[in-house]
Structures are given as structure tokens and as C-alpha cells.
Design brief:
single chain; 302 residues; mainly alpha; three-stranded antiparallel sheet; two-stranded antiparallel sheet; 14 helices
Length: 302
Amino acid sequence: MTRDEIIDNINSSVEDAVESMNKSIPGIQRKLLDEVTDLVRDLDYSGNNIASTVKNVRVIGAITRKLRKIILDSGYKNDVRDFLKSFNEVTTLQNQYMRQTTEQFKFTPVLAQVKEQSIESTLQGLTEQGLTANITDKIRDVLRTNITTGGTFKQIMQQVRETIVSTNAGEGILERYVKQITTDSLNQYSRNYLQIATQAAGMEWFRYTGSNIETTRCFCFALRQKSYFHVSEIPALLRGDFPEYQAMKCKEYDKTGLPQGMIAGTNAANFLTNAGGYNCGHRPIPIPARLVPQEIRDRITG
């Protein structure tokens, strides 16, 4: 494969892995809603309002375990295992790209450790620990609040439905969470791996790659148009100080001073890993200086 073909394969491998992991999530959310609906119907009521009884408190206390069991069925666990295999696939492709790009590349123990830690962190996020803190406990808290305040069946079901399947963001609670974990874990791993390998090899030029989609940030659109950049330009990029960004009239986030959507604390040292922020599918790919158009190199190096 050519270098461009490998880059395309890296990007498509990440996108395909995220899409495959997330395709079953809407169905799981519907099962969660069905389980909670049955539970709410069986609670004790005082007239139209949920009663604050010992039985109800105990039932709600046990809901986390039931919901977690629904999510962590054999199909979901298999999807997680398949998703984690994508870290190996991306690693193989990136090693192939780096070996074709520079003789200075070596697969080091540091890179192996980065992969191992990334896989472990992703596994925790997609299984018991992450699901409990970010999904099932939040559903339980909605139910518990309604018991203590005496909400009606209609009120509690409206809140439950909004929490599980129809949030303000347009995605259910599990769908939004799993999408962010899978997108960020694999993309940030890929970018961090390339950043470490690039620094070790002494490479300084990059091309900003990846697909533009409906939710692509203005900054990423602008940098995709710019395409090539030198490591010395990163501070200016983070200030939005480049023609493509200014032409698109992109905006900064007041609290961080960074282009909108970027992770707070993004700086010249970690931009190659953080890129455009959470849910960003773009990646800066290191390239040899000789492949950068001469007029672009002249602007930087004179």
C-alpha cells in the first residue's frame, strides 16, 4: 500500500470500529426503557403519586444491577471485544505507515505501554465501572428523586424517557456515552501513538486528515483546508491565527480562549493528541518535509 492508502485505511478502520460498536446501542436503550417502565408500574402509589415506602426505596436500590445486566449481555460483550481488537489493527497500520515514512521509526516499549493502557482504560469505560457511574446510576437517581418528591406515573415516565432515549442532544444516554468513549478512546490513542512516534523520529511536518461530517467543528474544517502545517505553527493554530480559520469566521470559546469544541487545556504540547476535541475523528499525520509543497515550506523555513 502507498502512504496515502494507509492513511485512508487508518481513518476508515477507526470510523468502522466506532460505527460497528454503536449499531446495537439503540436496541439496548429500548430494553432499558421497557425494564424501567415495568418497574415504575409495579411501585406502590398513593393516589396518582408514587409513595415514599420502604418497598419502593428497595426496588429502586436494586435497579442499577438489573439495568447493568441488560446492557452487559453476550452481544454487547462481544461487541466490546471486537472493538478492542481495533486497537491492534490501527497499531499495525500506523507502524506500517511510519516504517514507510522514516527509517528512524522503531516500535518501542513506550508505544506498547501506550496501547496496553489505552485498551484497559477503554474496557473500564465500556463495562461495569463506566456504565455504573455514567448510565445506570443516573437512571436510578431519576427514579429515586421521584419517590422522595411523590411524582406521578406520567411525570416519572416523561423524565425516564428523556433520560434514556430522547435527550436534548438527540441521542439516548447510553448511545451518547458509548459513542463518545469509542470515538475518543480510539482516535486519541491513534493520535497519541503517532505523536510519540513522530517526536522520537524527529519529524516536524503534518497533514490534517479525516472525514468532514455534519458535526465537524469549524476549526477542523479550516485546518482540513489548510491541510499541511509545521509543528512550529501549532501555537498560532490554537489562536485561530491562520487564513482558512479567519475566512470561515470560526469562533473561540470564551472560557478557554481556544477554538470552539476543543478540550480545555489543549496546548502546543498535546494538540497532536487532542486535535479538535471530544468526538473528533481527525488526525494529524506526520509526513516527510520533501512531500510538503515547496511554497508552504518556504513560508516556514524561508
